[in-house]
Design goal:
Layout (H helix, E strand, L loop, with lengths): L6 H26 L4 H7 L2 H27 L6 H7 L4 H20 L2 H7 L2
Length: about 120
């Protein structure tokens, strides 16, 4: 028996997809308008700077959580989520990690005989 997708894992997966679509759309819009995205982010004033710092701090804290929690649960290559966040967005990677974390926890909750039968 393979672990099923729990409602919480599905919720995280939907959030990951929404993060991907939302960030990708905004990035494409910036490219179409031929804006210097990083320069606009840095030079548009204190409010935008505050948002940037807020997001960066949350992403760093979340990256640490991903690596620590991934290792604690025995997930393979949790650092890869952090690397992928550098080319997508943390709004994609963090909910995706949470979805995979829920699956890993579901496997741990399965009775030992059910897990052994699933691997054969």
């Amino acid at each position: 028996m393979t672990p099923r997708w729990t409602p919480l894992a599905i919720t995280y997966l939907v959030l990951a997809i929404a993060g991907l679509v939302g960030t990708f759309a905004l990035n494409v819009w910036s490219v179409v308008l031929m804006r210097n995205y990083l320069l606009d982010l840095v030079q548009s004033g204190p409010a935008v700077g505050s948002i940037g710092v807020d997001i960066m701090v949350a992403a760093i804290a979340g990256s640490i959580l991903i690596i620590v929690e991934g290792r604690r649960l025995g997930m393979r290559r949790p650092w890869l989520y952090v690397v992928v966040s550098l080319v997508t967005a943390f709004a994609v990677v963090f909910p995706l990690f949470l979805a995979m974390r829920e699956r890993a926890l579901a496997v741990r909750r399965m009775p030992p005989t059910a897990g052994a039968a699933a691997s054969t």
